[in-house]
């Protein structure tokens, strides 16, 4: 009986595990291996260079700049979509007329591709025809207008705003599901004790939302590490690397310059940062679980 | 975990009494005002692309991108579809998305069933090994896969996208299927075994029919992610014959004399399939986002 069960387990697991191992795990390990070589992708004779690529990274201004930009991105990703997402979720969680209709509209950007979103925001930022500059001119604020995407000072922020626009809906979905799991009695108890809305928001709702908040923040960090499509479409990391992210730099080094070894090292760094974030995430989740026991 | 929706309906009834306590009528009005202002700003980007797609290029150069079109013209759509390569890109997108969605869910069903109902000694470690893939940034597998597909002659075909989406979709499919199967009482399986059924029959005739909501959740999620993907086609393809519509979008990009209207039409065409999925399966889509939030 048990034997037969195990036989079926092997039959069922064979294809999933084979495909996962060949196309995810083995490439992952190969990337680690390549990151210790000086391979250029074509020459079959490449050599083991130890930690050279990693040492080079620490002094490469392009990499340090990409790290800086990715950190800015991450900070924005943690604050902006979760802030707006929470605000809208708190409004829509009330029984108001048309709440479901509003929810649908706010969710909508999640199902759009970042390729489409990037395209739309290029039009918003267009120096002559873009909505942003037109609005600023209309408000007699012409001195604020800018060629947003070709100005190195604003390109990164312009791209981040477009990206955050999509992420708001995602944060909102998670906060809404978190809000519905808060026991209503606790809020009512706070009211009976004389708390006003803001007090019960800060003292009751937000603390009880922390499991959702942890998910939103972990997601924001992981997604910001992956940010590539929207950068590629809007600026390709330019001008002068001013909107480069780690993912974008990895693409440039590996698939434009064919520095396979070096590009692999960048991807390993990206991977390790993601793993550190996830480790924190699970520790946090476990602590929160204790909290509710 | 899947029971989220029932929770939602229950607690929204509970919330009903809340506004009267917290909000006066004027506050209620303010709330609506705030909501509508936020919503208008929020939907502008989407409206912009719709407006542009109905305008002629002369209209755009005369009056800008953001005025209302003079007439509801579908010229841009017709042009994009017939003169450009939009038809090929769209076909490729379907040829990638449908098989990859199907295969990743199929594999997820098999693996999820084992981890929930056929657990063996050490299977929880195998499960963690699979689930870990949820958190890998895709950049870590690109270079070796690019080399591999190049070597076996699949570079610049639609196959790499199908294969990689299937493999990389396995973690989320396994996770959601396992959780759903775990909620089905084990007694059902044991009764079927006594009746002489084998595991394949139990899975296809008993477990799967009751797990269709989970399959629907995965189908909407996977379809949307795979359809919208931009990274894999950029890396693994080069020619129109193999590229999907998301990469096709940027083929109209480039010089300053852009065909704005056509580009707008193409962006709308590219978004229609996922919008339809969203409109008709929103419940599953939202459920999936909360369940598989970790993937995003």
Q: How are helices and strands ordered from N to C of chain B?
A: HHHHHHHHHHHHHHHH
Shape verdict of chain A: globular
CATH homologous superfamily of the largest domain in chain B - what is it? MetI-like
> Can you tell me the CATH architecture of chain A?
Orthogonal Bundle
- Structural class determined from secondary elements of chain A: mainly alpha
What structural class should be given to the helix and strand makeup of chain B? Answer: mainly alpha
**Sequence of secondary-structure elements of chain A:** HHHHHHHHHHHHH
The largest chain-to-chain contact, stated as pair and per-chain residue counts, equals: A-B, 93 and 100 residues
- Compute the separation of the termini of chain A in Å: 38 Å
What does the main sheet of chain A amount to? none
Rounded mean pLDDT of chain B is 82
Which homologous superfamily in CATH is the superfamily of chain A?
MetI-like
- Residue share in β-strands of chain A: under 5%
Oligomer: heterodimer
From the alpha carbons, calculate the radius of gyration of chain B and give it in angstroms. Answer: 24 Å
Total strands of chain A: 0
The average pLDDT value of chain A, as a whole number, equals 86
* Helical residues, percent of chain B: over 70%
The count of β-strands of chain B is 0
